[in-house]
Specification:
- The protein has about 725 residues and is of the alpha/beta class.
- It has 23 helices and 33 strands.
- Helix 1 crosses helix 3 and helix 6 packs parallel to helix 7.
- The longest helix has 17 residues.
Length: about 725
Amino acid sequence: MSEAVIDLSAVAHNTRVLAKRSRGAALMAVVKADGFGHGAVQVARTALAHGATWLGVASSPETLRLREAGITAPILAWMRLPGEDVTETLRRDVDLSASSPAHLAGIAACAEKAGVPGVVHLKVDTGLERNGAGFADWPQLLESAADFERRGLLRVRGVWSHLVHPDDPRHASVPGQIEAFETAVSQARTAGLRPEVLHLANSAAALAAPATHYDLVRAGLGLYGVEPVRGESFGLRPAMTLRGRVIMSRRVEAGTGVSYGHEYVAERPTALALVPLGFADGLPFRASRSAEILVGGVRRRVAGRIAMDQCVVDTGNERVAIGEDAVVFGPGEHGEPTAVEWAEWAGTVPHEILTGIGPRVPRRYLHAEAPAAAPRDTRIRVVVLFGGPGGEHEVSCASAAGIVGKLDRARYAVQPVRITRAREWVPGPADFPEGAYTASDLTDVTPSRGMSAGDSLRSVLPHLATADAVIPALHGPFGEDGTVQGLLEAANVTYVGNGVSASTIAMDKDATKRILHSVGLPVADWTLLRGGGGTPSEAERLRLGLPAFVKPARAGSSIGVTRVETWEGLPAALESARAWDTKVLVEEAVSGREIDIAVLEHPDGRLEAGPPLEITVHGGQPFFDYEAKYEDEATSFTIPARLDDSVTAELQRMAVDVFEALNCSGLVRVDFFLRDGTRPVVNEVNTFPGFTAASQYPRIWAAAGRSYEQLLDTLVGTAIARTTSGSQ
C-alpha cells in the first residue's frame, strides 16, 4: 500500500556534484541513521562507486552492518560511551572518534584485547559546544593520545571538528572556526602526533566554502538531494519519493468534522480520501494543519490530524478512485511536495523528515545507471550456528561442517558462527566459500577471541540480525532445547527449525511422553525421578520389568543412557544419568526393531514423511548409544526398511501426528520401536537431528530422492516463508 522509492541514480549524481566541488579533498559519504532513511548499504555502495572514498556513521553497530555487507572502504564512527566495547569494531578496521581521555582509554583497552592498534580521529570543539574537546581540555587529550601511540595501542589518523552554522558556510563565524581548528592541529603536531586526515566541512561547506576543505569533506544531507546551502541551488536531486495508495474514498456534507478531535471541518460538500500513512511511518503530526499530498495528480490538503497509521485528504469535488497514487513527497518535478516543504510544515529540518520514514515502509530501489562498484549481492544470507557448551559440541561442529559446505553459494552467502564450550560467540568469515569441510576446519576459522559470553553475544548480534535465515545446527541442551531459539525470536531473527515450545518439550523426554500419551500415541512405560535422589519403588520395578533404560530427561543423543540388566546395576546407572540432569527417567525396554521416520515441512506448509529407516547395531553394542550413533562401523541402516506397506503408512502417519502434537516446525525425526515387529511405540523425538555424513535424517531424504543441497533449500525456504506469514 505504501513505499519509499529510492532513486540511487540521484545519489550517484549528488555524489559526483559534491566530489567535484570538493576540489581535491576526499569525500566522505555520511550514511548514519540507515543512510538518512534511504538504506545505508545501498547508498554507501552507490556513493563509493561515484566518487566517495570514505563512509561516516554515528555508532559502532552501524559500521558492522556495512562491513557485513562486504564494504571495505574506510569508515569513521563518532558516537559512543567511553567504556563501550568496540573490540569487534576495531577488528573490522574501523576508525573511531575520541574527544576525551576517557574515550581514548576505552578504545585503547579494546585495542589491547583485539590485538590490533585502534585508529582514532581526535575531535576538537571549535565553537559548537557539543561533543568535541574544548581548548582547555585539548592539551590533555593530545598528551593521552601521544602516550597510547608510544605504547602501540592507538594511532591518531585524523583531527576534525563541526561547523556551528551547517546551512550557512559563509557565516561570519567560519573564519574564527578555521583559525581555532588550525591552532588545534598545530598543537597536535607539537605534541608529536602526525594526523594525516583533517576534516571540518559538511555538505554546505563542501559546496560553498573551499577554505574548509582540508583533506576530507563530509557529505550528509546533500548526498540525499536536499540543497544544504540556504537560498542556493547546486543542482542536487532528491533521492527519496514517499508514496501510498488511496484505500477508501467517501463524500461528506458541509459541516462534517474529520479525524480525531474534528479539528478540520468541511466548509462545503466534499470528498475525502484515506491514505495509509501516518506518524508511525514518518509523517510528522505537527504538519497536520498545513500539509499537502499529491493525489490524482493534484495537491490536496491533509484534512485534520495525522494519525498513527493514516491520514485523510480533502479532494474537493473529485472523488478519487480506490488505489489512486498518493505522493507524500518527492523531487517536486511533478507537482508533489518535497521533503523540505514537509519540514517547513512541521517546523523541523529535512533531516528529520527523511530519517523519520519508519522501517515498516518498504524501500524500493531504482539503481544507478552505470555503477562502478560490484552489483549488490542478492543471495540469501545464512548464518550457521554451531558448537555450544553441551556434551554434543563435536557433533554439532560436524553437522555444521556438512551444512556450511553444501549450501549452494549461487543462492546463499554463508557465515559460520561458533559458540564455544565457554559460551563465547565467535563469528567466522562473512562470505565463507563452498567446499568440503571438517569440524576442525570450522573451528579453525572461528578461534576464541577471549571475550566473555555477554560481550561476545553483543558483538555477534549484528551478524544474526542482518541474516535472512539462521540455521541453529546445535544438538542437546543450549541449542536444541529452546534456549537459542528464544534468543533468536527476541531479536526477531528468522531461523530454521522448531520454535521455543516444541524445542523445549521435545528435549524433555518426560514432557514429550506425557503429551504424546495424552493424544493417544503409544510410548514406552516409564517412571520419573526428580532431584538428586530417589529410586523406583518395588511396584514400579515390577511394572517396568527388566531390562530397563535409565535416561537423563534433558540431555539428548543417548548421552548418560544406561541399559540396566539387573536392579543391582541401577545405582550406577542413576549416578551416570544424574551427572547430566537432575530429572531422570527409568523406562521399560521395548523389544523390537528400531525404525526412524523423518518429517519435513515445505514452504507451503505441507508435511512430508520420508521412507522408514531401520537401525541395526553391530559389534556387541547393547543398544544404539552415543558411540554407535557417530561411528559408521557400529551400525548399519536399511532405507527403506523392509516393512509391510500398512506398517510403513502407520509409522509415517504417527510421525506426522507427533509433529503436530508438539507444534513442531521445519523438521523432526521421530524414533520408533516396533514391539514384536508390528506395533509402533514412539521412543524419542529429535527437533534438530544430526546432519553429519553418518546421520539418519539426510540419509532418509537422499533415499527419497532429495539431495542434501535440496534438503537445505527446503528448510531455509520454509523458515523464510514462515516468517513472512508471521507464524514463527
